[in-house]
Amino acid sequence: MMVAIAGAKITRFARRRDNSGFRDWAAEAFQDALSMSGYGLADIDALVVASESDFFTLQLNPATLLAQDFGLTAVTAIRVEGGGASGQLAVQTAAARILAGLSRIVAVIGVDATASTLPGSAIRELYGRSFDGLTDGATGLTSTQVYALSWQIFAAEHGLGDDDLARVTIAHRLNACLNPNAHLPRHHHQEEIVASPLIASPYRRLHCSPLSDGAAAVILAASEALPKARHCAPRIVGMGAATDRPFATRSHPGRFAAKTRAMRDACRMADVQPSQIGLAEIYDPYAGAALQGLAALGFSERPGLDYANGSFGPDGRLPVNLSGGLMGQGAAPGATGVAQVATCALLLEGLYHAAAQPADPPKLAVADTHGGICSNAAVTIIRQGGSA
After folding, report:
1. pLDDT > 70 in the chain, percent
2. Which pLDDT belongs to residue 240?
3. What gap in Å lies between CA 112 and CA 116, rounded to an integer?
4. Are the beta carbons of 290 and 253 closer than 8 angstroms?
5. Which of 65, 142, 242, 345 is at 20 to 30 A from 38, Cα to Cα?
6. 134 and 275 in contact (C-beta within 8 Å)?
7. Reported confidence tier of residue 387, pLDDT bands at 50, 70, 90
8. What is the pLDDT, as a whole number, of residue 331?
């Protein structure tokens, strides 16, 4: 038995100013993914919801609430939280239920409101608690500052600098220009990036992903339970998740070791090597984190050079973040990992936004997410459907 992605939907990521809320975005994503899947409400036997923080939705127990909203009567409802990795972990939780025989068809919803519910200062304080709230967050240290420190260590080790950060920023925001649901589709130039305000050296404002509102959904099913019209739906073939020590106590604070371990386990399950993967949605809350992630996942020993030579561009050997990633599409944390899986599935099936859709999609894609400063990580490998 395998797990298929029967339906997928990503809502617009943005700062919502239309009096809508997380329940509206979640319902939109669910209904559209369900319609694509060919299933009806009565077919869904479980709902898994990813939401990073109750402070973002201002709702305790969101899974039960959304089950009610969706009309899913008497189903199993589970909420998953793992920081920025929440959405990816929710997908893996749902897939594991199917593989264990506990469910046949599971709806996965990722949703959060980080742009419209709370002021930015409150969001920064909350993210300061995403590593060790007692020893670090209580001091006022922000996640941006810790990410910047991690990048400085990695950059010194690999001979990277401001030009590399600008290159990632420009590439991902340019990709977002082909995604009509993206929060920050931009044609940046290097001078504009260098002139943006310094947040935590060397990160400037334009090196950072935006706070976004949004939702994403996938409908997962046991492959033998797929409707005939969806028999070629992409399959989840590899999953891995791992943790690491808090940033300050790591042996290599510049490296994302949890991501390396998660990728190793996902590749082992899928029986593939990183070199066989032809598409990647990489977790890029900051420009440098994308380069750190590509190295940790085994895609490059020289990520700066590979970005410079076009290896990770739309026509390169491994197109990265065709959606725009967090830098361009936006960052609604609970929705991010689900959106990555949905994006990979749609791209592999040839159903993504036309302007960003590769003419000849690869066979394999990877969705990569982490929480904290990569204190936990989750990686999912997806394969085109209909192949052995």
Report:
1. 98
2. 98
3. 10
4. no
5. 65
6. no
7. very low
8. 96
Residue 253 has pLDDT above 80, yes or no: yes
In 3-state terms, what secondary structure has residue 199? strand
* Cα 301 to Cα 291: distance, rounded to the nearest angstrom: 10
Question: Can you state the angle between helices 143-158 and 120-127, rounded to 10 degrees?
Answer: 60
Here the tokens at position 353 are: 């936004």
| Residue of 248 and 59 predicted with greater confidence | 59
Kindly state the tokens that stand for 350: 């040839």
Edge-to-edge strands, sheet with 3-10: 76-80, 46-50, 105-113, 213-222, 3-10, 235-243, 376-383, 364-371, 280-281
With CA atoms as reference, report the closest residue to 183 among 385, 41, 332, 367. Answer: 332
- Per the document, the length of the chain is 388
Mean pLDDT across the chain, nearest whole number? 95
CA-nearest of 294, 281, 353 to 320 is 281
- Tell whether omega for the bond before 202 is within 30 degrees of 0, i.e. cis: yes
Contact call for residues 336 and 283 (beta carbons, < 8 A): yes
* 80 in Cβ contact with 376 (< 8 Å): no
Alpha-carbon gap, residue 339 to 266, rounded angstroms: 19
Structure tokens at 272: 């593939």
Residues 90, 388: Cα–Cα separation, whole Å: 26
pLDDT given for residue 388 in this prediction: 40
Segment 33-73, tens digit of pLDDT: 999 999 999 999 999 999 999 989 889 999 999 999 999 98
Q: What's the gap between Cα 80 and its chain centre? A: 14
| CB of 156 closer than 8 Å to CB of 304 | no
Question: In the predicted model, is pLDDT for residue 310 greater than 50?
Answer: yes
Average pLDDT of span 112-116? 92
Neighbours of 186 (CB within 10 A): 19
> Which alpha helices (DSSP H) does the chain contain, by range?
22-37, 54-57, 62-70, 86-99, 120-127, 143-158, 162-176, 190-195, 257-270, 287-296, 303-308, 325-328, 333-349
pLDDT class for 137, splitting at 50, 70, 90?
Answer: low
* Dist CA 21 CA 124 (whole Å): 21
Instruction: State both tokens at 90.
Output: 């929710």
